[in-house]
Amino acid sequence: MERLSLEMIQQEAAKAHSLQELRIFRDQAHEELQRHLLFARPLDWNRKVNTLHDAIIRRVIQLSEAQLVRESGEAPPVPYAFLLFGSGGRGEQTLWSDQDNGLIYAEPDSEEAKAGAERYFAGLAQRISANLEEAGYPPCSGGVICTNDQWRKSAAGYRRMLREWLENPHWEHVRYLLISADVRTIYGDPGLDGAISGEIIGFIKSNPAMLEHMLHNTLHHKVSIGLFGQLIKERYGEDAGGVDVKYGAYIPMVNGIRLLALEAGIRVSSTERRIQELMANGHVDQEIGRDWLEALTIALKLRSMTPYQIEGSHYTTRGKLTPEQLTKERITELKRCLRIGIDLQKYVKSKFAKR
């Protein structure tokens, strides 16, 4: 692991002159990181993996901008930011995460300029997304991607969309709001994403009843442990006998911590940092917060151990541990994580039911 330092990752990605060079570097880095997964501290290993993704995505964007300059002579007409959502926005991607991204740009000063900006950024988004696919990142199956004009807007456009979701909080709108709450700028103007996080947190501060709508979505995914402490396993198909680590352990924890962070007005998107700030600002007892950090650590490690495959040129995974991976030691570790997850969901439900 020492051989692949954070500085080396950033330097090697920045040196790539083509997508082919970038993909070769990514494949080599994957092998190196996977070899050291079981011997590293999970949170440190996770930071290294996400430094790798950040460096590759930034270089893809730079190469995409340069392609447009060579082909049409066009550069970005106004400042913009390339955004990550989902696990990328939280800085918690696995080695094989897909594209969850968007694009936000400064408001142009005329109608003609608006049309020009829309056209330019639509073209840039298509180029970036296609190049990310070439680098091994499949598009988001849920459509949270910069080529979807719902996730590519001016700052004012994002505010209008968020306000509509906030004022009409049915299930799908709330789902989009929770996705938006995990935003992080990966490239470009770092001040633009404040139009998103600021709008959500500001509305909640004035309208705390919004948290009740968010609670239903937050508790949607159940922790994969039964009433008597048994693991809930996959019953059918090629994953039969395995355990869904992503949706049965990791996502319930992420969702619960996110809602507590939104109530507290915490703007960081990392689950680890959200827990730390909840503890530091007295929103949760230190002992409870340390349990949450322990469960997050276990969930991130086990999630990164799930088998993956390369389909076409894409890295993909189903996010499930196989029966063979469920050793006695691993089951004990997983059950510890899941019990804390159950307690977290009870804590969140109790807290917002009282409100």
TrEMBL record:
Gene Ontology molecular function, alphabetical: [protein-PII] uridylyltransferase activity
Coiled-coil positions: none
Organism ancestry: Bacteria, Bacillati, Bacillota, Bacilli, Bacillales
Natural source organism: Paenibacillus naphthalenovorans
Alphabetical list of SUPFAM superfamilies matching this protein: Nucleotidyltransferase
Protein name listed in UniProt: Putative nucleotidyltransferase
Keyword Cell membrane: no
CDD domains: NT_GlnE_GlnD_like
Keywords recorded for this protein, A-Z: Transferase
Lineage: superkingdom: Bacteria
InterPro entries: DUF294_put_nucleoTrafse_sb-bd, GlnD_Uridyltrans_N, NT_sf
Pfam families in UniProt: DUF294, DUF294_C
